[in-house]
User: Which sequence fits this backbone?
């Protein structure tokens, strides 16, 4: 599908990529990994044709299409979400307009025997077949399915894109790229702004629908679920294994251990040979053996050990001052924006030393509740901070708020006070900004480097309550592991808003789920919570009724078990009735489609004769029947999608 040949990238005397080569084949889903600043995003841009390498080539087949999702993009704010996603099918709409024009030509012209007339028929037939194969008649259903999978609600479809945050706008662009179904998908951090449910949907989509994929992600669970090959950029070179990331890490470790053992054995052999040569060099009786050993030494192919990038993030939160036993106590916290209810009656107590996670779909109130804890917004209810609580806050957009014209050193020097100013160089070195790196301007830093720089602010003052809103976005896998270890060893309390399952695994002991205006407590780790959610889904506990109805039924169930069982029975009965109705409607539409297809086949056979080609009434009937069929196909797609969502 795509070939990289002897590609190198240099910046001001520094070699980022050094003579690398590889081939991306069909059905391969490749994880492109490496430390922040290793050159991952640069390589994707070169593959997408947006940047030129210093030397080397990127070869792409003539008809191959490439879809590229950058970390940041700009959308036109003049369209709605649905209209923007529909741009994926612009080429099909043009084909449809061309076909309509050809049909009009056939209806108007009378030169039925001419070569020009027959060429129009051939062109129209070819376009018709292409459109049938492309799925033009169900593109609206495809758009709907993709937008819903990425977390949008139907009510969002007609909203202008300008009303959405950067994370949601990224989803719109991702939907557009996926709908185009390119031959090669290049995705740079696609999970950064997705919630857990949307990530799982994307995992399934890439595993079952994509052709060839290369993606950059620092979500280990996502990489393991999607990819079947790993390419790591390390010190300008690449290491390429046809396994997923976790297996690659194991194989790389085993390979290096084998290299070390082989290297040590070879060094011992070389040393013994050199000692023999030195000992008997001047003894005539041993001259033949000495010459033989010299030749043997010259022929030895020296074993090299894979280089390792030993630059490592050294992160340890300073000792926290002791807080009260309960850093945060909430009673009946509610928050609305106008008529929109974010959540209501949130009551929870966070104990000192707890590590908890806030999870749920985007827009359900995770960051809003964090702002309530920070006293940044008004709310209803009582929220109390415990004795001596000192909060350290890492906002989701913290890295984007940095002044791009300041250097790394100036960025920290601007906020450092007191004795800490004498230790700025040491702190920057611990975060891999040692030496000349501290003089880089923020605008040239990668996303991960900016996140590390923003994280330094948390170290400038001891805190005992860490609130981290999506702290792993843009951090490479090694840095994430270091951050996870530092939070685990942190002797204070931590609230972590994150969609990264691997990061939360083994870190948190309690999960608060946001959804439908409620905040629900789940005791246990992130995979305990996900297992429970999957079980609930299988038991159809999440019925397709409104959130308010579900909440009311839940409250009544607590008051009266017998009434709850009766209501559950009635709802299930209503569910079954609606499902049977949808199935009957689909069956009727399928019968109509079958009859129309038979009729069209008959008309096509008649129109293929000279007499039929001259029959304008028959041609008109053919066009009308085709249009009728398109309508039924569209209706069938909508009903089928509705039934799928209903059953799910």
Assistant:
């Amino acid at each position: 599908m795509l070939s990289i040949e002897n590609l190198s990238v240099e910046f001001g005397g520094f070699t980022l990529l050094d003579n690398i080569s590889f081939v991306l084949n069909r059905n391969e889903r490749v994880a492109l990994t490496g430390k922040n600043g290793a050159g991952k995003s640069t390589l994707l841009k070169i593959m997408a044709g947006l940047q030129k390498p210093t030397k080397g080539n990127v070869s792409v087949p003539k008809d191959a299409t490439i879809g590229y999702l950058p970390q940041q993009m700009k959308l036109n704010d003049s369209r709605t979400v649905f209209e923007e996603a529909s741009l994926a099918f612009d080429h099909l709409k043009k084909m449809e307009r061309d076909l309509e024009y050809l049909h009009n030509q056939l209806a108007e012209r009378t030169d039925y025997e001419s070569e020009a007339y027959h060429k129009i028929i051939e062109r129209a037939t070819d376009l018709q077949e292409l459109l049938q194969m492309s799925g033009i008649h169900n593109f609206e259903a495809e758009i709907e399915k993709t937008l819903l999978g990425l977390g949008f609600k139907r009510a969002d479809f007609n909203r202008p894109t300008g009303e959405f945050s950067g994370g949601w706008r990224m989803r719109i662009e991702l939907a557009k790229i996926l709908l185009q179904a390119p031959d090669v998908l290049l995705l740079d951090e696609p999970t950064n702004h997705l919630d857990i449910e949307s990530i799982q949907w994307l995992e399934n989509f890439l595993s079952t629908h994509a052709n060839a994929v290369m993606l950059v992600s620092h979500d280990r669970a996502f990489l393991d679920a999607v990819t079947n090959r790993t390419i790591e950029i390390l010190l300008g070179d690449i290491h390429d294994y046809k396994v997923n990331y976790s297996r690659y890490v194991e194989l790389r470790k085993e390979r290096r251990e084998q290299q070390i053992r082989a290297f040590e054995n070879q060094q011992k052999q070389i040393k013994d040979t050199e000692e023999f040569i030195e000992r008997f060099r001047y003894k005539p009786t041993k001259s033949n053996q000495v010459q033989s050993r010299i030749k043997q030494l010259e022929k030895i192919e020296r074993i090299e050990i894979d280089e390792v990038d030993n630059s490592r993030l050294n992160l340890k939160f300073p000792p926290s001052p002791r807080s009260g036993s309960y850093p945060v106590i909430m009673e009946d916290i509610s928050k609305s924006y106008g008529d929109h209810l974010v959540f209501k009656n949130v009551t929870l107590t966070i104990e000192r030393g707890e590590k908890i996670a806030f999870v749920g779909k985007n827009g359900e109130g995770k960051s809003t509740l964090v702002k309530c804890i920070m006293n940044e917004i008004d709310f209803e209810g009582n929220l109390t901070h415990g004795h001596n609580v000192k909060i350290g806050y890492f906002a989701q957009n913290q890295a984007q708020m940095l002044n791009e014209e300041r250097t790394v050193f100036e960025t920290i020097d601007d906020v450092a006070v007191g004795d800490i100013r004498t230790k700025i160089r040491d702190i920057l070195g611990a975060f891999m900004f040692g030496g000349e790196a501290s003089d880089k301007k923020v605008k040239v830093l990668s996303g991960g480097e900016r996140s590390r720089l923003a994280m330094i602010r948390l170290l400038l003052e001891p805190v005992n309550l860490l609130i981290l809103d999506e702290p792993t976005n843009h951090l490479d896998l090694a840095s994430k592991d270091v951050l996870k270890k530092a939070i685990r060893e942190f002797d204070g309390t931590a609230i972590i808003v994150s969609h990264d399952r691997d990061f939360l695994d083994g870190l948190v002991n309690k999960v608060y789920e946001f959804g439908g205006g409620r905040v629900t407590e789940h005791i246990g780790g992130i995979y305990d919570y996900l297992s429970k959610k999957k079980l609930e889904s299988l038991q159809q506990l999440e019925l397709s009724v409104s959130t308010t109805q579900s909440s009311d039924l839940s409250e009544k169930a607590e008051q009266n078990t017998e009434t709850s069982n009766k209501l559950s029975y009635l709802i299930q009965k209503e569910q079954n009735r609606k499902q049977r109705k949808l199935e009957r409607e689909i069956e009727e539409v399928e019968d109509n489609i079958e009859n129309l297809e038979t009729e069209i086949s008959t008309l096509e056979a008649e129109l293929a004769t000279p007499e039929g080609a001259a029959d304008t009434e028959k041609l008109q009937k053919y066009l009308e029947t085709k249009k009728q069929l398109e309508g039924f196909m569209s209706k069938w797609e909508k009903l089928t999608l509705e039934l799928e969502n209903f059953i799910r």
Summary: The radius of gyration is 32 Å. The CA atoms of residues 371 and 529 lie 24 Å apart. Residues 561-607 form the longest helix (47 residues). Confidence is low (pLDDT under 50) at residues 537-567.
